[in-house]
Amino acid sequence: MKPRIPVILAALSIALALPLQAADLSQLTADVAKYESGQSVEPLRKFEQLLRDSAGKPALRAELEAAMVKLLAPPATFEARRFACQQLAVIGTDASLPALAELLKDEEKTVGIACLALGVHPSAKANKTLRTALASARGRARLQIATTLGDRRDAEAVKPLSEMAHDNDALTASTAILALGKIANEPARKTIAALRKEAKPALARIVADASLRVAEELAASGDRKGATAICEELLQPAQPDNIRRGAFGALLRLEKDGSEQRILAAIHGSDAKLKPVAIAAIGSLKSRDASKTFAAELPKLQPCEQVFMIEALASRGDDAVRSAINAQVSSADVAVRRAAIAAVGRLEGASVVPLLVKAMAGEKSPEELQDIETAFVSLRGNSATDKEIVAELKESPAEAKIRLFSVLARRGAHVAVPSLLAEASGFNPTTVQAAFQAVGKLAKAEDIPALLERLVGMSAADARSDGESAAARALQKITDPARRTDVIMARMAKCSDIDGRSSLLRLMPSAGDAKALDVLKTACADKEPRIREAAVRTLATWPNIAAWDMLMAVCRQPESETVRALAFRGLVRLAGDLNAKPDAELIERYRKLMSVARNADDLKLILGALGGVAHPDALKPALSLLSTTSVRAEAELAVRKIAVAIKAQHPEAAREALQRLQPPPKSKPSAKKK
Predict the structure, then answer these.
(1) How far is the C-alpha of 547 from the C-alpha of 517, rounded, in Å?
(2) Average pLDDT score over residue span 281-310
(3) Would you state the pLDDT for residue 8?
(4) Across residues 31-50, what is the average pLDDT?
(5) By the 8 A CB rule, do 47 and 87 touch?
(6) pTM of the model
(7) How many CB atoms within 10 Å of residue 325?
């Protein structure tokens, strides 16, 4: 009798609750000890899971730590030792310190992974382990241990690190100095201060960097006076530029009330290295008068400095800076203009529309014009700003209008549709095209009658296709296809213009329903030849197979070769659209196409589409044309494509078809009689 499921689950729960067997842990440890990079990580993952499960279980955690200590010694692989160090960095106790101390002795292999574990070890005894190892360490091991002591901010390590800081080897001295900068207690600060006075060229940058760390530590602890004294010392011209800039920035943060004066002094001074730092700090000043004070400085600066100042003032964003920034939109320097334009876009609204329109005039690079467009798009104010931009259209030249059309479209300014439609009735094809393109993006369903009115009555014939595209895009805003057809038909009923009627016919695929197809069927019998041709052209672009019978009827009884060619190409396209789901009906459509083909060009079109039919029955019509010299190359290509596509499901049919493509074997000459 099989045990019931609850009994099994209960037994499993008991098994999981049992303590970890020593044999199991021993085997797992042995498996981890053999791990090499590229092998299965399953043993490592099991060990990690055990470590997670040991939370709150001191006895189990002690067992696991002991297992990891074993992994630190040979014959465990280096990868196994590194894994153990990674885990000991999380759960290691004093019990693991002796084994880690042994790893510190191996300069070439294990000192790095030992420092990985010791760097975050919670016990203060880890500091002693590192200091002891430092005393006898050499080479790279000495550097890594010194760095780890600095990371641990071990106060008792200051003395040996200070001795290292005077080592003749520059790398050794630099490592010790950086470690002292991290510790930053009083003895460490004294050592670093003494090193600043020694001013050894090879160590100057490192000493300055450590000094800056010390200053930051003093500032964080509330000793502004001490931090300020160090920063003032680091401002000396002999210091590296990055240190001087860092010290200057720190001084600005340290001064509660006097930073404005220090910034002004830097701006008026001749030290070009500090000016960008001073200007950048303006954005975070707390004083209410700071915006007014520094906005007044903007016109006095050099162009490169003005760019920085504009960005800093813009980050403040208050009224006091806006007029100063707006004035720079007409600056003679292109970099200043572009910075001001970008800031205006972030800060302003409808009031600056005339300013930006004016900025588009004159010789401007494409990049600057793009900046102006982007600023227009970013302006605040929504509909109020949109209306202000629309108002500017009346007096703007054609080139500016085109850019404003684009701006209105990008802003989603539906309020502009009536004005854009008015512009679409103009005579300049370029302007009309741009207006229609914007309308296509902005128009809603309620705008379609007015849009169709502009389309049928347009004056710029070269822009007609843009008008049709805009109308087709707007029609998609009507969710009901029948309603789209009704809207088009309503306008068509009042239209006698041939070009206008043709445009409306070309919109019927946007509706795509049976009623729209009936409209085209009627148009195919219209007394006007241009209307009939427009209807056939539209049928040839119909989005689904519903137009097949009408196009086939045109093909069989065409009124001209042009009309027949249009209908034929439309049929081939419709057949090709069905290739993804081949069936007997599709093969029959290709046969009908062959029956109405008139020349080699027609057959080539058919074969080009037929080659995409992954169906064994498609081979027969393709093979039948191999004997037709004028299309043999296209027939061979179609056969190959079909055969390759079907060979997995129909290997025999594919093999036979490919054999048909092989040239017949040459007959051997008969042997001559002796």
Answers:
(1) 7
(2) 93
(3) 38
(4) 93
(5) yes
(6) 0.73
(7) 24
Q: What is the average pLDDT score of the chain?
A: 91
Tokens of 285: 């000043």
* Long-range residue pairs from 6-13, CB within 8 A, at least 24 positions apart, any chain: none
The sign one gets for the Cα dihedral 367, 370, 376, 379 is: negative
Q: What is the pLDDT of residues 69-81, one digit of tens each?
A: 999 998 999 999 9
The structure tokens listed for 549 are: 């019978």
Q: Name the one residue in this structure whose structure tokens are 């043709």.
A: 502
Tokens of 12: 């499993």
CB 179 within 8 A of CB 157: yes
212 closest CA partner among 661, 220, 604: 220
Residue 664's pLDDT is: 62
Residue 534, token pair as written in the block: 């427009």
Q: Which phi and psi angles does 43 have, rounded to 5°?
A: -60, -40
Give me 346's structure tokens.
Answer: 């972030």
Q: Which residues contact 23 (CB under 8 A, 6 or more apart)?
A: none
* Residues whose CB falls within 8 Å of the CB of residue 391, separated by 6 or more in sequence, listed in order: 353
- Distance in angstroms (rounded) separating the CA atoms of residues 258 and 156: 38
Burial 122-156 (b: 16+ CB within 10 A, else e): eeeebbebbbebbeebeeebbbbbbbbbbebebee
Over residues 477-497, the pLDDT tens digits come to 999 999 999 999 999 999 999
Residue 122's contacts (CB-CB under 8 Å, 6 or more residues apart) are 92, 93
Domain-by-domain residue ranges, the chain?
A: 578-660
pLDDT in tens, 85-99: 999 998 899 999 999
What are the contacts of 616-621 at 24+ separation with CB within 8 A?
616/642, 616/646, 616/650, 616/653, 616/654, 617/584, 617/587, 618/582, 618/587, 618/590, 618/642, 619/643, 619/653, 619/657, 621/587, 621/590, 621/591, 621/594
> Would you give the distance in Å from CA 195 to the centre of its chain?
48
Residue 140: name the closest of 117, 110, 163 by CA.
110
